[in-house]
Sequence to fold (276 residues):
Amino acid sequence: MRVWNATASRMRCVATMRVLQTYLDGALDEVAAQRVADHLEDCRRCGLEADVYAEIKTALGEQDRTVDPRAIERLRHFGEQLVRGDAAGS
Amino acid sequence: MYQAGERQRGEDAFARYVLPELEVLARVAFSITRNTADAEDLVQETLLCAYRAIDRFDGAHPRAWLFTIMRNAEAKRHRRRRPQLLRDPAQAGRVESADPRGGVASPEQVVVGAEFDAVVAQCLASLPDRHRQVVELVDIDGLSYAEAAEVIGVPVGTVMSRLHRARTRIRQRLTAAGLAPKRSMR
Fold:
């Protein structure tokens, strides 16, 4: 019985790892997401792994990706010129 | 040649569907080109193509439509110039030297957090372009898998596998730097 439980638990770990990143991206369906959430609650090892990937995602999300506001302004001006028919060459 | 009414409708549609996406387009263009001037050119080209095609656009999913136009515009830009075989060394070192917190010695957690972020940034910069690109599109620019797939013109499954592989590599780098535990499957 203990062997069976250990095997079942390992299979849940493998299944969880397979979809962990998709889960963290919020792209799993509700049922699968709940299954992963339950497992992460129960399994310290997988929970830790989820924490690491969540931190990686956070660190990536905090990378500075501010586009120069002057470039945005120039592009907006270009777009507005198109709307006014000044720049499309039409 | 437009009739006056058609032209007005096209201009309205352009203002309604395209202009609100300008900032997203600029961010995504930067992720693709890694260069502000090229990104600006790419967005201009995208806007121009979108303007010329607006009368054929049905109003559904403007962002996805614009990403497809941008992808095609980028492919056209690439055909016009030599491929960039080596990245500009100044660009490659950009991430490492851009950390505003670098060199700040303070409580241990802050240092570890800064190191973590620095390793993530360095690893991101050293990823193969096709892996780096999906990470930037999804994790930094906030695109969905489907939107990222639209931008680079690959199936959603490819986006997912590149993304997962890239993050796994970052994770391995963090482990090697002693900033994340080793993963041990039983």
